[in-house]
Specification:
It is built from five helices and five strands; from the N terminus they run αβββαββααα. By secondary structure, the protein is α+β, with helices and mostly antiparallel strands. Strand 2 and strand 3 form a beta hairpin.
């Protein structure tokens, strides 16, 4: 009996997720080189293509509730974002399914116009009040208030620097 490679196992898992959700999938292909935490697969289906993401390390925690909230919140502003199709778990592995967005990855489309637009999106997000229904793991250890959280986060980082830390020499803080 032939032993499947990790890549074959991951592609099978992506196809199983698509099947569990009722997608009549035609082809599954992995997007590689643009992330280290998740496997990212495009499933071309009889309907519309979708993106299926799941952790590379099966022991990693499930951050997809947080990501689902952020995607839905961004879309409500409206900041262009993939639509959440489904979130769940199969064989104990959490996954997130998103709509496929055509275009060029920001990794390859660099321009001042792009950066200005991203800055407008960031400013729009910074003006928002975080809703009460936001998942707790959206917030780091310093609380729910973004401005206070950032201040305490910077102070924490400054407090743990040593006199010989390269970040001081580089002027990062």
């Amino acid at each position: 009996m032939a032993h499947r490679t990790g890549a074959e196992r991951d592609a099978t898992l992506a196809a199983n997720i698509a099947g569990q959700l009722g997608f009549g999938h035609v082809r599954t292909r992995e997007i590689t080189g643009l992330g280290a935490v998740n496997h990212v697969f495009v499933v071309e289906s009889d309907d519309a293509p979708c993106v299926i993401r799941f952790n590379r390390d099966p022991l990693d925690r499930d951050d997809f509730a947080k990501e689902e909230f952020c995607l839905r919140f961004a879309r409500s502003l409206p900041i262009p974002s993939p639509e959440v199709v489904a979130r769940g778990s199969i064989d104990g592995i959490p996954f997130l399914v998103q709509s496929f967005v055509t275009g060029v990855s920001g990794e390859f489309a660099r321009s001042p116009k792009l950066w200005r637009q991203l800055g407008r999106y960031a400013a729009t997000l910074a003006e928002q009040t975080v809703p009460d229904d936001a998942p707790e793991d959206l917030f780091p250890r310093f609380g729910r208030d973004p401005a206070e959280n950032w201040r305490l986060h910077l102070q924490y980082n400054l407090d743990v620097l040593t006199a010989t830390d390269q970040l001081i020499e580089l002027g990062a803080y």
